[in-house]
Design a protein that fits this description.
Blueprint lengths: L5 H21 L5 H30 L2 E11 L4 E10 L5 E11 L10 H4 L19 E12 L4 E9 L8 E8 L1
Antiparallel strand pairs: 1-2, 2-5, 3-4, 3-6
Helix pairs in contact: 1-2
Length: about 180
């Protein structure tokens, strides 16, 4: 939530007026202990609703879209480079866009399916008895690919992440989060 839009400010004003109204209604109580508990609970409820509504407004007013995203694997240093463009398709300025890249090894290979593929028991003592040769089958990384993106603006980006050399037939997924 970097930039507040006019909708954010209107929402904050509405919740401030709601808080003032609840305090005025609470003034009718003659017992000071009950009055202050009512003011405190009114403050908690209105502030929590305001914070929640800020996140909801942020999600629906600041929208981005990935365009022409490609990737190339660099065998020299075992990395993968992602190229593409991000576009602000909303009507408000975006503070930053974050790209989440998830690479899964050998997605849905029916030849290697075992019971351990679907069920791997975990416990608090797992670090004592782990197999050091076990390799992760999923790699997830986040990249900030754009900052201060105006409405309708398109910006190029590139991101580099390590690519495990033991991956075969990797499935690559992208998610874009704009705030």
């Amino acid at each position: 939530m970097t930039y507040f839009t006019i909708l954010h400010w209107i929402t904050l004003l509405i919740f401030l007026l709601l808080f003032v109204l609840l305090v005025i209604i609470s003034k009718k109580e003659s017992n000071p202990k009950i009055f202050w508990s009512m003011v405190f609970s009114s403050f908690l409820v209105t502030s929590m609703l305001a914070i929640f509504s800020m996140f909801v407004l942020d999600k629906y007013t600041k929208k981005g879209k990935l365009i022409n995203i490609t990737h190339k694997r660099v065998l020299l240093n075992e990395t993968i480079v992602f190229f593409g463009q991000v576009q602000n398709i909303g009507r408000f300025k975006i503070g930053r866009c974050k790209l989440e890249v998830k690479i899964a090894n050998n997605a849905l290979n029916l030849n290697n399916i075992t019971g351990k593929t679907f069920y791997a028991p975990r416990s608090g003592l797992g670090s004592l008895f782990t197999n050091k040769k076990e390799r992760p089958s999923t790699v997830v990384e986040d990249f900030v690919i754009a900052k201060d993106l105006n409405p309708g603006e398109v910006r190029n980006f590139s991101a580099t992440m390590p690519y495990p050399p033991y991956f075969q037939k990797a499935d690559i997924r992208y998610k874009l989060y704009c705030h």
